[in-house]
Amino acid sequence: MRYNTLGIQVTNTCNMACPHCITDSSPSARGDLDWDEIERAIRSAASHVDGICVTGGEPLLKRELTFGIIRLTRELGLRSSMVTNGYWSRTRQTAERIMGELDAAGLDKLAVSYDQFHDRLVSPVSLEQLVQAGAATSMELQIQYCGARQDTAYHTARDVADRYDIELTTAEVLPFGRGRDLVAAPVTNDVDAVPNEPCGVVTRPVLTPEGELFTCCGPARDADSTSPLRLPAASGTEVGDALGSGETSSILNVIHNHGPRSLLDQLSEETRARVTENLRDTSMCSLCRAITDDREAVAELNASLASEQYRHVALAAVLRQTQDTLTTDTER
Amino acid sequence: MRPDARPCQTPVTTSPAGTQWVLIPDSDEAAVVVVNDTGYRVLAQCDGTRSLREITETIAVGTNITENEVSTFLDHVHRCGLVTLTEHSTPCSQRSG
Amino acid sequence: MHEESEPSERPAVVATFSKEDLVNDLPEVVTPHIHTVQNS
Predict the structure, then answer these.
(1) Mean pLDDT, rounded, for A28-35
(2) N or C, which end of chain B is more exposed by having fewer CB within 10 Å?
(3) What is the structure's pLDDT at A237?
(4) Backbone angles phi, psi at A176, to 5 degrees
(5) How far from each other are the two terminal CA atoms of chain C, in whole angstroms?
(6) Which of A97-101, B56-60, C4-8 has the lowest mean pLDDT?
(7) A235 contacts A43 by C-beta, under 8 angstroms
(8) Are B32 and A317 in contact (CB < 8 Å)?
(9) Is A174 at the interface with chain C, CB within 8 A?
(10) C11 secondary structure, DSSP code
(11) How confident is the model at residue B96 (pLDDT cuts 50, 70, 90)?
């Protein structure tokens, strides 16, 4: 499987403390990556990824690191992206200035988080100022909404995205990070309700301020120490090797090719029952974590998938080629 | 394969996977092949102008890789439809069929 | 910076697969599930 982007989580600190935050970021959260580690990691990973995504926390609280990453990404010929909460677009002048600086540094894509949690600090006017300023640049813009799509923030995001003809991505709140407390619905063990689809997140690894490397930018952060979602990289220079080892992992390739639901069929009845008991909700991510955190499940999967390892690798390559063809056709 | 055979790689999409490479042919008749890094380097030399002997000389620098081993590899990928062969030096882009 | 090492192993085909078989094994939905990072 070919990785899409390597996320560089420059900091845990954020000037917001959204109740759904998967990284538990907040003003009091501490932990930053330093430049030496970032540079080693990006250079080491360059041949394994298509792009680098600066994330956090709020990346622009670490302005020097963030701009350094964007410039290095461009220098290496990779695609650069960044996720921000957009706090800096409170005035039109500031929005235009920072957008101009990001554009000049070579940022290819900017995603702004906006939903009922983020809108406590970022107003609809600020969101529009940010998008308006971005529309004058060559950057691709995206609004990322998280929630049930029934609140005012969703309608604001939809309206701005439509008027400026930019992409709006939506997702449900996941029961991970601080979101675990937010998703208070009773735990359901209905594994049949979990979507049976390939996972696009497992190809988006992230390096955290703690120096941990996960193959998934989502809910892998507190994964079991032996989880296949956790890639072994003791230092920045080893990030590329760690990514390389993940590329041929049968479990990761099956998650990428078919999704975690297809792993269930490979498990013994007893293990499948235990995994199902550990579901936090019916999201793919919950099932993925329930399987990959279960050491016996991982051992069973490693044994049953071993003989087909290169078939999974080859299928992942064919799937990626098909997805790339679709993307190219859409862009035409 | 004769030492003066000049293999030409057919159009493929390559995708790295750890220390291997997945080669996906444009043609539906050819096979999807996973090769090791040396195999990938050999195929990168197959531009229709270099002979088996010349390719081996390039790849074997600093190693004990033999012409026979490169020949065996190229025979295998030839059967998979990933290379065509000729005895004349013609760049792949100028070959027909 | 690491120097690139010379290839020391002989060239090898690790595995081969019918392209048609692989294409038939592709999931029905090829647009993958992607969720937002849920933070900025």
Answers:
(1) 96
(2) C
(3) 76
(4) -135, 160
(5) 32
(6) C4-8
(7) no
(8) yes
(9) yes
(10) P
(11) low
Suggest the residue from A50, A231, A245, A248 to mutate for an interface test with chain B (most B CBs closer than 10 A): A248
Query: Helix H segments across chain B?
Result: 37-45, 52-59, 67-79
Tokens of B2: 């004769």
Cross-chain residue pair B38–C18, CB shorter than 8 Å: no
Q: Tell if the CB–CB gap between B19 and A313 is shorter than 8 Å.
A: no
Q: What span, in angstroms and rounded, lies between the C-alpha atoms of B6 and B91?
A: 10
| Average pLDDT of the segment spanning B16-30 | 93
User: Nearest chain B Cα to A243, which residue?
Assistant: B18
Does any CB of chain C come closer than 8 Å to the CB of residue A56? yes
Does A197 reach chain C within 8 Å, measured CB to CB? Answer: yes
Instruction: Tell me the pLDDT tens digit for each residue of A279-302.
Output: 988 889 999 999 999 999 999 999
- Do residues A15 and A61 make contact, with C-beta atoms less than 8 angstroms apart? yes
- Is A324's pLDDT higher than 90? no
Q: Residue A95 and residue A98: Cα distance in Å, rounded?
A: 5
Set of chain C residues whose Cβ sits within 8 Å of the Cβ of B20:
14
Smallest CA–CA distance from B16 into chain A, residue: A2
B31 contacts C11? CB cut-off 8 A:
no
pTM of the model: 0.90
Distance, in Å, from the CA atom of A91 to the CA atom of A78, rounded to the nearest integer, reads 31
Contact C32 A85 (CB under 8 A): no
Best mutation site among B10, B19, B37, B58 for testing chain C: the one with the most C CBs within 10 Å? Answer: B37
Cα dist from A328 to A199, A204, A322, whole Å: 20, 20, 10
Question: Can you list the domains of chain A with their CATH numbers?
Answer: 3-184 (3.20.20.70), 248-331 (no CATH)
Instruction: Compute CA distances A303 → A63, A130, A184, A225, A253, whole Å.
Output: 46, 51, 36, 19, 15
User: What per-residue confidence (pLDDT) applies to A160?
Assistant: 97
Domain definitions of chain B by residue range: 8-86
